[in-house]
Here is the input.
Amino acid sequence: MLNNSVKVMEPSFVRSFKCAGETCPDHCCHSWKVTVNKKSYKELKKSSNIIIRQLANDNMELTRTSVENYAHIKMDDNNNCPFLDENTLCNIHKNCGHQALPHTCQEYPRAFNFFGDQVEASMIMSCPTVTNEVLFNTEAFMFESSSKLITDLNNGKIGGLPEDNLPVWFPTIRDFCFNIMLSEGLSFNERLFIMGMYLKQAEPHLNNPAKLAQMINSYISMSEDNTLQNMYKNLPAIPALKWHIFQHQDNKFVATTGVKLITDEKDNKNYTVSNSDLRFLACREHLLSALRDDKDEKNNKKHSKTDDNNTGEMFDKMLAQANNSLLPEYFDKNPHILVNYILYYLYHHQFLLKEHKTPFQFYRIMLVDYFMLTSYLSGIAVNLGELTDEWLAQLFQSYSRRSQHRINFIEGIEEQLKSAGSESDAAIFSLLK
Ligand code: SF4
Here is the structure.
């Protein structure tokens, strides 16, 4: 790092990002908590532009939590940022330029993470444009490198793992995971299975790079002679476990929206439901429609808690219907989409090391996310008779937005796996069947 410059790796999905502005379907100036750094707070309050000065005086509340989190913007009654004009353009940006924006607004959706002595540029998938770039760009993970000033990267706010904190196992294991995900001779689920098996078996040897490399060689041999593929083939399917995990994760996802849970319970509190919540609930509604029993529907009979087994069976039937034809029809034409999603997960989340997860714990969380997303996709495909790019993008983006900043959501996944008795390897891998 000479003269505070650093080598930055930029994937194509970052380089090709262009904010959709007022045409964005889930604008980031709606229903976020926008923190304001001290310098921006002071400058906006005494702006020479009278409109900005007035808006700042009326709509910013001091918190003084830190220099970066010195105040926040109070959203209006519709949960929109009060600095937006009638065309949903930002008044600060329009009148005073990009540099006058609070840091949060300058930075979103960009993210920078140290990876040893270099920095990896990324973006947050809660932004619809980023979701489209990550999922649909066939070259999303083609990298270019350049040298940049640290202060130019999100005002010097760089997360991740600098050299001193980068565990010895990290580069080897991540490279292996990337390579497995790009192995075209394997089915997508075989790739995920092999990655998981390796991460599980590597866990006791994380401080032994030679052993990790040796294990990689034996995994390559076991994949060449079909040993791993046969292990995957013989994995049991456990429909009851899938239903258990789905219901509980889904309950967590719709909490604070006030809608009925799958178990028919309803939280009667009043909540402010954001546009993003509505986008997610619209995806989920396809799944609920797909689950409704025709006969019950005709008799206008609602499901109750006692219907749980019945609904579990319908869930299994729905997944089978989607997996037999509807999802393969779509993903055979678009093989890069799910691969890109997992590459993004590996790249962006850095094995959740900041949340103190081990590689296999990280894998389990990733697998549950993948399972939840493909379950909702199955519901969409069965209900509509096909899967479309638009619904897929809406689901992945709104799901990302609901799970962003939710460490308790991650912890929730692990609790669910425990309570479902799914701590054994076979159980977690059965989500792939
Ligand atoms: S969410 Fe993304 S595309 Fe939409 S307005 Fe914000 S930065 Fe632009």
